[in-house]
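Worked problem 6 (solution included).
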Amino acid sequence: YQAIVFVDIKTVVMSKHGQVKSIKERWQIEGNNIKCFEGGWQSFSFQWESNTFSVVNQPSLGSGVYDSASSLLQYSFNQQPFYIFTIESNNESVRFVCKDILFLTPINWVYNTRTREFKLEENPNAETPEGLENFFEAGGDFPLYAAFFIVMFTRTQKTKQLYDARMNRNYQRCSKFTAFATVSPSLCQNCAKTPSICVCCSNTASIPAKFCKTCARSSNLCAKCGDATKGTKVAGNLCQKCGLGKQSELCAKMMF
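Solution. The predicted structure is:
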């Protein structure tokens, strides 16, 4: 019976009783209703109906949908996609692979169909909020995709908070003269998700940007958002407007 609920990837089976838990979190489902008993979300009402995970009394926390036609799991805020996962399955496991995420590094999860455990795949280069759970257990008749949205819920909310905080920063260009500049600006993985984006705005860019002597000391930080640059760095450029004439000789570092 357990194998039918968790292995049949083409059909989501509606269950009546089940739980998902980790060291810090404990969730239960009764019919279509999901309740958090430990983990910080006790005051909210959750629901799993028609392949949709929702926060009934707080829609601003987003919602998740499983699309059976494309086998995709998508979580959105105000109808704007925040993450999309694809599903890979075999007789022993179900792998949830992040196809796209609005902020930070994509991560993958593996669900063991025998032990009914979710484990986060290790990635030493992953950028992720601190203090999050990497291991969950499912029990009873919890629908697999509802369980996945719960496994990702706290991580998603904390990541969204970091994203909103970054987007609310008041940025201004340094604009100091870059005489004898030797260090070139670079973009972090998040800002580089938009190809050829200007360091100072959202236009398409192709003019090499420059750092002043002071800003060159923080060359390990993204020139556009100020976050740390990890992994492969992408060169920062200016658009035709921000790099017009002598503008290209001014420091492109965005300050906040």
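Discussion: The helical segments are 2-7, 144-167.
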